[in-house]
Design a protein that fits this description.
Helices cover 71% and strands 3% of the residues. It is mostly helical. It is globular. InterPro entries: E_motif, PPR_At4g14850-like_plant, PPR_rpt, TPR-like_helical_dom_sf.
Length: 434
């Protein structure tokens, strides 16, 4: 084209962005600017999706403001999505607050952004959205249901489920799949099973969600039966399905059946096992006490094992008291992921048991250095319709004194019925913020 206008340039940027060819899309946009073609709203909306980093995104935000798009809701929604994508939630919230006009996409973008990293805030934004008169759609409810699942707050999840039914959205496949996942993660496997059975149409995600739910709650045989039912229904499994069924076999002690499934991954289904699948098989063998076989499997892997595979072997060595192999596995984990505090604790205990006190002390020192740099983990629990949050190493708060008293009683009870050395190691680990 000898004469290209902004529409032609934008079409190229949008086309590359739609095909996830981000580098090319960005290159076309930069060339467009060099030729002094002024971008329009569609250009900004497209290029914001392909920003290579936060710095580029902020530059696009500034450029959009410079060209007078602060009142253009689709452009502002794209800026908001960019901040959420780069997990810069304070700037996302600031952008949201400063927006002159908000639509349902605006609210959905912020709710989805918070869902992955601050589920409580996601639910608060949802509540505020409804109070301001916006009607949630399937996308809204999918994010909110996921937030309830992350927090394991079943009462809130049930209210959301009711809202889905009232609005006639309970036939949406993706939304029903999210409900199965939510109920399973909240501990209501019966309700998850009921929803699954009532589905007129199921996709691979439906089967996988139910299988993962069964496996997580110790219903290994049910998960295996569901896998067989899925295969009979001519639904082709993928890597995630095999991870779910292998994990279920591991927890249920179905070792031979799990190994048969592993062999069928390549032979029958022509799926190449990934790190996670190998990790599941290592865990399967390790839990059954076949630790040497697990180690041999690692040595025969067609690619370099990652920390999840070595971590599975390390757990097996700890369970079956194999300090030599445990040391090897722990060192491999630290080579690949040096910030895992629990690995330092385990190594320290192994060195102490072998009388290598200097190495044990060195591991403890390294562990404390990492703990001081880490952001404290937070857990949530729902009790009588109220959600309580706990931060690792927390010593203040309304219920902390009672919590530590109860923890002390539990440790005392463990000492009475279990191995004292193991309990002492656990207490020491918790005191160090693990």
């Amino acid at each position: 084209m000898p004469d290209r206008d902004v529409v032609a340039w934008t079409a190229m940027v949008t086309g590359y962005a739609a095909r996830s060819q981000n580098t090319r899309a960005w290159g076309v946009f930069c060339e467009m600017l060099r030729k002094e073609i002024v971008p329009n709203a569609f250009t900004f909306s497209s290029v914001l999706k392909v920003c290579k980093g936060m710095n580029y995104g902020q530059q696009m935000h500034a450029a959009a403001m410079k060209h007078g798009f602060e009142s253009d809701t689709p452009v502002m929604n794209s800026i908001l999505d960019m901040y959420c994508r780069f997990v810069c939630l304070p700037l996302a919230n600031q952008c949201f607050t400063e927006m002159r006009q908000k639509d349902l996409i605006t609210w959905n973008t912020l709710i989805s952004g918070y869902e992955k990293f601050d589920s409580t805030q996601s639910l608060l934004v949802f509540s505020r959205m409804e109070s301001e008169g916006f009607t949630p759609n399937c996308f809204t409810f999918t994010s909110v249901t996921a937030a309830c699942a992350n927090l394991a707050v079943i009462s809130c999840g049930q209210q959301v489920h009711g809202g889905i039914i009232r609005r006639g959205l309970n036939s949406n496949l993706a939304l029903v799949n999210s409900l199965i996942d939510m109920y399973a993660k909240c501990g209501s496997i019966t309700e998850a099973h009921k929803i699954f059975n009532e589905m007129p149409v199921r996709d691979l995600v439906s089967w996988t969600s139910m299988m993962i739910g069964y496996g997580a709650h110790g219903y290994g045989e049910e998960a295996v039966a569901l896998f067989e039912e899925m295969v009979k229904a001519d639904v082709k499994p993928d890597q995630i399905v095999f991870m779910a069924v292998l994990s279920s076999c591991s927890h249920a002690g179905l070792v031979d059946q799990g190994l048969n499934y592993f062999n069928s991954v390549m032979d029958h289904y022509k799926i190449k096992p990934n790190q996670e699948i190998y990790g599941c098989v290592v865990d399967l063998l390790g839990r059954a006490g076949r630790v040497e076989e697990a180690y041999e499997l690692i040595q025969s892997m067609p690619f370099k094992p990652d920390e999840s595979v070595w971590g599975a072997l390390l757990s097996a060595c700890k369970t079956h008291s194999l300090p030599g192999l445990a040391k090897l596995a722990a060192l491999r984990v630290l080579d690949l992921q040096p910030n895992v505090v629990s690995t330092y604790v385990m190594l320290s205990n192994i060195y102490a048991a072998e009388g290598e006190w200097r190495e044990s002390a060195r591991m403890r020192k390294l562990m404390k250095e990492i703990v001081s740099k880490k952001v404290s983990g937070k857990s949530c629990i729902e009790v009588k319709n109220q959600v309580y949050s706990f931060v690792v190493g927390d010593t203040v708060g309304t219920h902390m004194e009672r919590a530590y008293q109860t923890l002390g009683l539990l440790f005392q009870h463990m000492k009475e019925i279990d191995d004292e050395d193991e309990v002492d190691c656990l207490i020491h680990a918790i005191e160090n913020g693990v």
